Amino acid sequence: MTALVNQQIVLASRPAGEATVDNFRLQTSTVDPDALADGQVLVRIHYLSLDPYMRGRMNEGRSYAQPQPLGEVMIGGTAGEVIASRNPNFAVGDQVVGMGGWQQYQLVERHQRGVLQKVDTTHVPLSAYLGAVGMPGVTAWVGLHTIVEPKAGETVVVSAASGAVGSVVGQLAKARGCRAVGIAGGPEKCAYVTGALGFDACIDYKAHGDLKSLARALKEACPDGIDGYFENVGGVILDAVMLRMNAFGRIAMCGMISGYDGQPIPMANPALILVSRLKVQGFIVSERMDLWPAALKELGGMVASGRLKYRETIAHGLENAPEAFLGLLKGRNFGKQLVKLV
Ligand SMILES: NC(=O)c1ccc[n+]([C@@H]2O[C@H](COP(=O)([O-])OP(=O)(O)OC[C@H]3O[C@@H](n4cnc5c(N)ncnc54)[C@H](OP(=O)(O)O)[C@@H]3O)[C@@H](O)[C@H]2O)c1
After folding, report:
1. Cβ(164) to ligand 1 under 6 A?
2. Rg (CA), the chain
3. pLDDT tens per residue across span 31-49
4. Which domain, by its residues, includes 245?
5. Which numbered atom of ligand 1 lies nearest the CA of 161?
């Protein structure tokens, strides 16, 4: 083999407000599969995962994760195939997931132990390891189990319900005997949430322009109130759900995507936390590595048996990753947003 051209997308500048395609830059480097050093593994990336957290990494300043350095390949989860290896733990043809970033090839060094995980694609497609059987699925599992702690007969609500995380939250809640209610943008997404995913109800927040209207819709969809809420969005959606929370309800703060471009999202009535004696807790899935094996076991089994459904939006070609990423922040994705490179 001769040296391969490796297209990469780097962070060119930090957004001021809304992120744009100009914040990214395409560059090329080369990598020679015949010139690997001892212990190195070369992966051809098939799928790149696009995730909302990447928006936070584009900013400078304090957060739970380090900012993405300027001029470096954008961070990101990837799934692909080993095409060259000088590492006894990996053979050519192995299907792997890792954090290869926005590029076509990932070179893994000997000392980067644990960076690549082999996956079995016999019953679970490779791409699902970036979605329902990957980080988003585990996020749903961890937030539900450690914070929402749903009991049979309770009502669990989740926002961004048709998405990678939200779709799993509702299906897991149903599997535990709960009433699952989604909130999503548009009739098509809502029909999918109640149809294919089997939620009991779904509210199209775009059809409810203000807090009152949204709270009324929630009252109808949740006649016994809300016991658990899995928050992915923030803002008026959170305010409306808070109004319907039962005493001693639990809210898992997973994401607040409506504020990722810097929009202020104040909480209208924090006194409800006291009045309704709510537990409100944030979590970061990468800080609960102890729970990943149990979560992946259940999620993998459910996907393999067809009990856990998911949907993907696939952009084609690395050059289209920035546009697809910006679309994800605007709800243009429908299910897990991926970029297919091969
Ligand atoms: N805490 C953690 O460890 C962790 C890990 C992974 C993900 N997350 C969070 O989980 C959430 C979901 O992530 P995901 O990967 O599953 O993404 P996703 O739901 O597949 O895609 C994002 C969705 O968010 C919705 N959205 C975007 N802007 C919105 C707005 N202004 N108002 C209401 N909804 C909006 C859109 O759906 P609609 O069309 O329905 O509006 C969009 O499709 C994100 O907040 C993410 O940051 C947290």
Report:
1. yes
2. 21
3. 999 999 999 999 999 999 9
4. 135-286
5. 40
